[in-house]
Protein 1
Amino acid sequence: MDSEASKKKPWYEVVATLTPLILGLAVAGVGAVFTQVYNFRQLQLNELNLLQNFHPLLVSEKEYDREFAYASFTALGYGELAAKIIKIKEDPAGRAIVEEIKQSGNAAAKEEASTALTRIPARVYVQIASKTQQQKAEEIVSALKQLGFVVPGVENMEGKVEPPKSSEVRYFNAEDKAAAETIAAFLRKNGMLDASTKNVTRFKVKPGSLEVWFSAQTK
């Protein structure tokens, strides 16, 4: 018993032995926290600088300018920030960018992109077969805007192309099918009983773009 007791080190010797290890772990922990805080602050500064540099493009009335700014953010590795801005602005100009972020961004960016897509209104282009349909088309445009769609205006296609035999809501990307069906149902409720959806795949069109085509019989 005495020999075993004599082998045990006093507590202060044990503490003295462990102190360098404890200090080393503490310093490493503090260094890791400092590095993490520094990196976070640096990221914030970079984002602020980026926003400042691209501010004229972000507030531009030209969609091309805003889309270029969003694309630049994404290319520089700030896809999550781009998606957040597009979501806040509910900007149709950024739809193609958030679609790309949703496919190839990191987890946080993908989540922001998914949320942004639910906020961005689809853009609907309205084509009529003759001038006599102008008033009806303007009523449709006004109603679609109230539903939350972006409708640039009405284009008269008389003499340019052959109108469809029945009114159509054309969509070009699978993710826009639901919006097309919503619009077609709305048109039927508002007198365009022949309205139906049509998936057009021979053209490459940005997601979020749809077309309403009046038939010659629409009044």
Note: Residues 30-119 form one domain.
Protein 2
Amino acid sequence: METRELELGFLALPRERPAPGVVMIPDVWGLSDHARDLARRLAGEGFAVLAIDLYTREQPSIATPAEALQWIRELSDPQVLGDLQRGIDLLAADPAVAGRKLGISGFCMGGQYALLAACGCRGLSACAPFYGMLSYADDLDPAKKPRSPLEALPDLGCPVLGLYGREDHLIPLDQVSELEAGLAKSPHGGEVVLYPGAGHAFMNDTRPEMYRAEAAADAWPRLVAFLRERLA
């Protein structure tokens, strides 16, 4: 496996190339060792992975979950989607991908933006959000938050595999049901998997209080199989 640090993030490449590409969006804590580990794991499954760094302009000072939520509320979606399009274009042009299909995945805040990217960015053939927030509060700045992921669903451009915890206090189950209904109406379709006993960040094995081994063990091969099918 080959890895590179880029201006836009961390690139992990499989041994056999060209390979389908995946833009991976980390959670609100940014391009951490955990995010790099997930990128390496996915590269080990045969994908060229760009774990994108959304904090190249400004590194937030986040110490608590409340501060993390406030940061997400104030982050400019158009700016983030512009950065994601740059990442998609960069990965598509890399010789390691060489014209193969691209997908996008993300965790927490990254799952939120993965779904928005699937509805607003070019060049994607699959989207796999992990527990990304689906709806926005009414009091947010419309210039920074023009539409929530659920509101963007009519513009969905590729199939979706959504992976959520049934006990996620940040994402109400009625919103997950609304996502399922929206995917059922889309010509691209998709699937939502809900994990009993799992809450937010159930994939993050660096946070023992959040990690759920059984859910993570099921979700990862689902992700790999979905990407292999859709990016073949």
Note: The chain has seven helices and eight strands.
